[in-house]
Amino acid sequence: MSNQNLDQMSRGWKPPFFTLWSGQAVSLLGSQLVQFALVWWLTKTTGSATVLAIATLVALLPQVFIGPLAGVLVDHWSRRRVMIIADTLIALTTLGLAALFWLGSVQVWHVYMAMFIRSLLGGFHWPAMQASTTLMVPKENLSRVQGLNQMLHGAMSIFAAPLGALLLSLLPMQGVLAIDVVTALIAVLPLLFIAVPQPVRDLASTAAQARPSMRQELREGFRYVWSWPGLMLIMLMATLINLVLTPTGALQPILVTRHFGGQAMHLAWIESAWGIGMVAGGLTLSAWGGFRKRIVTSLVGLVAMGLGILLVGFVPPSAFWLAVGLMLVAGFMNPIVNGPLLAVVQAVVAPEMQGRVFTLIMSFAAAMSPLGLILAGPFADRYGVQAWFVVGGAVTILLGAAAFFVPAILRIEEGHSSQTERPETSQEMDSAAFSTGLVENIGD
Questions:
Q1: Could you tell me the residue range of the domain that residue 344 belongs to?
Q2: What secondary structure does DSSP assign to 366-399, as a single string?
Q3: Using CA atoms, how far apart are residues 276 and 282, in angstroms rounded to an integer?
Q4: Residue 192 covered by a domain
Q5: Ramachandran angles phi, psi of 423, nearest 5°
Q6: Mean pLDDT in residue range 231-248
Q7: Do 184 and 30 touch, CB atoms closer than 8 A?
Q8: Angstrom distance (rounded) from CA 199 to CA 356
Q9: Which H helix or E strand runs over 113?
Q10: Among 52-56, 218-222, 374-378, which stretch is predicted with the lowest mean pLDDT?
Q11: Count of CB atoms within 10 A of residue 10's CB?
């Protein structure tokens, strides 16, 4: 990239990026409202931990099985168009579910299906957003932008949970779902007018040989990740952590109703505490940037987050507000864990590989979550939901502490260091996409 283009990017990246970012923030609010409303409907309709675990399971399956394929396609398709189509189809899915509620014919499997489709489309939207961010934001600002992304998710958790509880008391379910349709359309609007960079491919090599097959490109993505031992170990850690932590988020409504004897607003307080913590953690990361070695920041946050989750499992039924405080601490640590890890990948992985790498990371991180959900639902129904919080917190602490003694993990930022320079980018000017992390956002 020329010095002139670098100077232009440094001066002019903020207006287009944050215009798109703001539209996605509005859409995120609608998605959070839908998530809260549907989970509470399942909780009150069935009262089953197993049902809630299955709901989370069907939302995770697309990330595990479709993720690598989506990454290959995102690396070839227009990332702006991917996000326009994904947001539009998510809105149509929600509209169909709202119609079923309006007709009074909705069933649990309809909710499962809607969650599956929304997750499938999100599996295309997320890598397109992450890969676009890499080319829209200067490298030195990636950690801070990731901090803002984590803060955004936390802020939505603060407002969406109590707002969802309030709306459920004022509107029928279809009314709450209709809000998500409107916010999704608001997210699409700026994508129609703002250009999103695409990585420039090597035209000479493309002309010299036929375009590789999808299978070859999948293998290329696997080889790229496999040759980076530190990233492979981090992905394996994330797989084990999500095995035990993902169910804690799915089981929060049962924790509130069975253990604490609470109602929708109590669940809203728990989720808001997580969100307040994420906002504070995201702001802290955005202003501070973390330790010089990003991985040290993530591991310290991982141990502290595990401790907060573990202690929630020991809170007695009469101390609900102590659980709220502990969830705030755990939420604070979530962006401290995820933000630096995502920034490492964005800064080091070649832009033309990022769609595949991000979806492989997402698939690995979510791979064991379905097994965790299958085990956690019956386990919580039999032994109590708080026991799973103890298990999840303890495993997280042990893995985070052990990673400090693994050189490949501590030197992860040295991997693929020769590929940190960005290639020249091209802009789509004819007609004009926007974080989750390795460790699940268990507050949603």
A1: 3-198+218-419
A2: HHTHHHHHHHHHHHHHHH-HHHHHHHHHHHHHHH
A3: 10
A4: yes
A5: -75, 165
A6: 84
A7: yes
A8: 13
A9: helix 108-136
A10: 218-222
A11: 12
Taking the C-alpha atoms of residue 202 and residue 398, their distance in angstroms, rounded to an integer, is 45
Question: Residue 222 in contact with residue 360, Cβ under 8 Å?
Answer: yes
Q: Is residue 387 part of a domain?
A: yes
Torsion angle of alpha carbons 253, 257, 263, 267, nearest 10°? Answer: -30
Dihedral angle sign, alpha carbons of residues 167, 170, 174, 178: negative
Q: Does 69 score more than 90 pLDDT? A: no
Q: Give one DSSP letter per residue of 150-190, joined into a string.
A: HHHHHHHHHHHHHHHHHHHHHS-HHHHHHHHHHHHHHHHHH
| Number of folded domains that form the chain | 1
Backbone angles phi, psi at 406, to 5 degrees: -110, 105
In a domain, 425, yes or no: no
Q: Domain with 307 in it: what CATH number? A: 1.20.1250.20
Q: What share of the chain is helix, strand, coil (3-state, %, to 5)?
A: 80, 0, 20
Q: Spell out the alpha helix ranges (H) of 251-353.
A: 252-254, 264-288, 294-312, 320-348
Q: How confident is the model at residue 43 (pLDDT cuts 50, 70, 90)?
A: confident
- What span, in angstroms and rounded, lies between the C-alpha atoms of 367 and 63? 8
Closest among 211, 191, 157, 143 to 29, alpha carbons compared: 157
Interval 403-415: pLDDT, tens: 999 988 888 777 5
Per DSSP, the residues of 328-362 read HHHHHHHHHHHHHHHHHHHHHS-GGGHHHHHHHHH
**93, 42, 265: which is closest to 162 by C-alpha?**
265
Q: Which of 293, 400, 407, 420 is nearest to 353 (CA)?
A: 420
